[in-house]
Design brief:
The complex is a heterodimer of chains A (420) and B (174). Chain A is built from 18 helices and 9 strands. Chain A is α/β, with parallel strands linked by helices. Chain A has 2 domains: 227 residues, no CATH class; 154 residues, Rhodanese-like domain (Oxidized Rhodanese, domain 1), CATH 3.40.250. The two termini of chain B are 17 Å apart.
């Protein structure tokens, strides 16, 4: 399943693939005229809009291919690296980069291409970049600078998530924005570049953009819009089989006694998400669990905080039985949450295993299996005040219950972008 | 200039963009990552520093992460992409007869001035690119294609920064 990790074919083959991609990249830049600083700078005087045309064409072509492939399940977008949004350094870095662009006439990639074709200004620019990256490394040792470097970290945040739209509508909007910019770029070049009087410039969009090009772009965007994103089930099926079998093999359903042990292990951090409704949660919940009803769990801030948990954190999903927990498990898993487990049999099993005092809770006569509702009637709302919420002895001893240990902490694989 | 007349013209920007877009897609498809340049340049810088001041590399966290101790900063896939970019540019330059020792500059400045400004601009950009976790390729191009919110904010800021300053430094280019 794409995306592939080129390095799985061995270091040599992997490096060869990166080298080949780089060659394509360098050729594309050089052919497009990006080895010439004057043409790049001309972008900012509106006389030659080549930079904008090439860049936006490349962005939308790659975007369309990625999302078409995702719609049809040929590429798992959940496994594609998306640059993290760390908004303050990105805003300031972006502005500074623009300044460096107009003064130096290149960006790092294009300066390489210029240097490789013996443009002396390109060589000086590359040396400047090397000096600049050195300065950043040195200044990051200043605490205030280091704080700024990480200010406004929203993790993996895409425009569809930010706007609360699907990928389809955002892709369509981006395409129309790009076409509008191409149209504007065409007019700018005629007016500022070729100095043609305004009245002689054709305002017909098709004079500035090739109709076939625009047509294909719009068509592909509409395919993505109509086909839509893969459903949760489809995204789940794109995961490696070993990952999916963990549910069938029940490797990720932990016994209540194991959860209790994890909760009281000071070397671990248990983050227990109680997925039930508020009234069930208020009636009885496990100590230190947090109420996150399953219906509202699909929020960027929550999922991002789960992804950023330290490697010694065990995240445990809890519902009355296992239904809501299993569904939520899939949602979080496709979104890349690690060290994720569910409470075996849910709250009902917890109460069953540790035993409720008849004066506080009585087992209901009949509960429809799989209905994910509470199997006990509590005499009042206890929250987490009962000993049952953390049933350990006075000196922290665990109850003597045999169970199969299932929690295996995974060190997170630090994935980073090509440029990052 | 004679060099200009013998060099082949650049291709249609939309064709160039489509080619670049397909390369970018191939990068995502085959590696899960986009394109980039500044990250590898940072590694190259750390490698060079490591040759002269190895203990300093070990002490500065940002350098040590990539080149500290036994780590070889340039033993990384991104550096291969960097080498490829250099090679690819050279190949295309040779084919299209643009492989020539020269300085491209505006008509009002000397070569030497152009070199100084190229170095200063490069330094600003190198600093900014690592601050923003990527340059025009790694952030704007790659992040733009996968609809990263931060990359789009970054891209708008790049254009804003360039256009804001362009008028003041027009003597460099016009």
């Amino acid at each position: 399943m794409a995306p592939y990790d080129a390095m799985i074919y061995g270091k040599l083959a992997g490096y060869a693939i990166y080298l080949a991609i780089g060659i394509g990249f360098g050729m594309a830049l050089e052919m497009s005229g990006f080895g010439d600083s004057r043409r790049l700078a001309a972008q900012f005087y509106l006389t030659d809009m080549r930079v904008l045309k090439v860049m936006f064409t490349a962005i939308i072509v790659a975007m369309l291919l990625i999302f078409v492939f995702w719609s049809f399940g040929w590429l798992n977008f959940d496994n594609v690296w998306v640059n993290h949004t760390i908004i303050w350094p990105q805003i300031v870095g972006g502005l500074l980069l623009g300044v460096g662009f107009i003064i130096g006439g290149f960006c790092p990639g294009t300066s390489l291409v210029a240097a490789s074709t013996l443009k002396i200004d390109g060589i000086f620019f590359v040396l400047g970049v090397l000096f600049g990256v050195y300065l950043l490394g040195e200044t990051l040792s200043i605490p205030a600078m280091n704080m700024f470097y990480n200010a406004g970290d929203y993790g993996r945040l895409t425009l569809p998530t930010l706007f609360g739209l699907g990928a389809g509508p955002v892709v369509v909007l981006v395409i129309f924005m790009a076409l509008f910019m191409f149209y504007g770029a065409g007019i700018c070049e005629k007016y500022f570049g070729e100095k043609i009087p305004w009245k002689d410039i054709s305002l017909n969009p098709l004079k500035h953009i090739h109709p076939a090009f625009a047509g294909v772009l719009i068509l592909l965007a509409l395919v993505i819009l109509v086909k839509g994103e893969p459903s949760l089930q489809d995204r789940w099926n794109m995961l490696p089989a070993a990952e999916r079998q963990k549910i069938e093999n029940r490797d990720v359903y932990i016994h209540p006694a194991e959860l209790l042990a994890v909760m009281n292990n000071f070397q671990l951090k248990a983050r227990i998400l109680d997925l039930r409704g508020q009234s069930d949660f208020n009636t009885f919940n496990i100590l230190s669990s947090v109420n996150e009803p399953a219906e509202t769990i699909n929020r960027h801030d929550l999922i991002d905080s789960l992804r950023k948990e330290a490697p010694n954190t065990v995240i445990v999903l809890v519902s009355n039985d296992e239904k809501a927990a299993t569904e939520t498990y899939r949602l979080l898993k496709v979104n890349g949450v690690q060290n994720l487990y569910m409470l075996e049999g849910g709250i009902n099993n917890w109460i069953g295993v540790f035993g409720a005092d008849k004066t506080v809770a009585v087992k209901k006569d009949a509960v429809v299996p799989g209905s994910d509702s509470m199997a006990y009637t509590f005499t009042r709302a206890y929250g987490s005040t009962l000993p049952l919420s953390n049933p350990i002895g006075d000196h922290g001893e665990q109850p003597d219950i045999k169970y199969v240990k299932k929690v295996k902490l995974q060190l997170k694989v630090a994935k980073s972008g090509g440029c990052g | 200039m004679k060099t200009e007349s013998s060099a082949k013209p650049y291709i249609n920007p939309y064709i160039g963009g489509i080619f670049l877009g397909i390369v970018l897609f191939a990068a995502y498809y085959l590696t899960g990552n986009g394109l980039g340049a500044s990250g590898a340049l940072s590694r190259l810088q750390i490698f060079i520093l490591d040759l002269f001041a190895s203990s300093h590399v070990d002490r500065v966290a940002y350098f040590a992460e990539k080149g500290g101790g036994p780590l070889i900063a340039i033993d990384n896939s991104s550096v291969l992409m960097l080498a490829g970019t250099f090679l690819g540019g050279m190949i295309s330059g040779l084919i299209n007869r643009r492989f020539r020792l020269e300085t491209r500059r505006g008509p009002q400045i000397t070569d030497r001035q152009r070199w100084i400004f190229a170095f200063i601009g490069g330094a600003i950009m190198g600093y900014a690119a690592r601050l923003a976790r990527g340059c025009t390729s790694g952030q704007a191009l790659s992040g733009g294609a996968v609809l990263s919110a931060g990359s789009w904010a970054f891209m708008l800021c790049v254009f804003a920064g360039g256009y804001m300053l362009a008028w003041f430094v027009r003597r460099l280019w016009q």
